[in-house]
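FORM 7B - TANDEM STRUCTURE REPORT

SECTION 1: FIRST PROTEIN
SEQUENCE AND TOKENS:
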Amino acid sequence: MSNSAHAGNNSVRHEQQQAANDTSDHLVAEAASDTSVARNREHIQLAMSRELLAHAKDVLSVPRQPAHVLRYTCARLTESLDDVLSVADERGQRLTAGEPKSRGPALYWGNPAHDDCGHTGREAGPA
């Protein structure tokens, strides 16, 4: 093989490698953007859930709320819980996809040895 043919093959390989690198860089940037959008959406969903929870506590602090107010609040809380569970599922999927894992809480009702939140195990938990 002549030097010019060898140089031509190297040039083609270099162009192919550069194209592969550009594609890879684009995919990495796109994945980072998708993750950023997902985290922003999660942040908004969780912030709205916190606000709704505060409102629900206010509603429940009034002894005799009309049934339609309680039903409306309950419906919004149900939607909010669905959003929060969706956030938890998405975060779990990202963790299993290779994002750094955080320790997270290890709360087992009634067993303070496994409780990172300072609970004594005397709080009301699931029966």
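SECTION 2: SECOND PROTEIN
SEQUENCE AND TOKENS:
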Amino acid sequence: MNNVLERFQELKKYIDENSLNKESLIRPLNKSILGNKGLSFEFESNKLSILILFWDSGIIDILSIFIDEDNLANSKEILNYIYNPTKMDFLEKSISILDENIKIIKTNYKKII
């Protein structure tokens, strides 16, 4: 989970440095049927919502939505990704998928902000 925490901290730094008035949040997840423990990354502003859940089982749930308050019809889902590993090498694959999706979030964040 240290690898995931490092990636979340890097994304938090990136978002917080570029956000005018909102800060992102990293917090632990309690034990559930998805895993014994996990981490969540959360950010919400008047234009963008990001939620990333990463469980020690390798399960990832990512949702990012752009909101156009002036014209809600222009609002769109940027990313909706769920990964449920099936092999024992899940953590390596899950972290690779997390990296790819963080790049997508950063790219879209630059366009929105």
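SECTION 3: OBSERVATIONS ON SECOND PROTEIN
The two ends are 30 Å apart (CA to CA).
The chain has a mean pLDDT of 87.

SECTION 4: SIGNATURE
Preparer initials: ____
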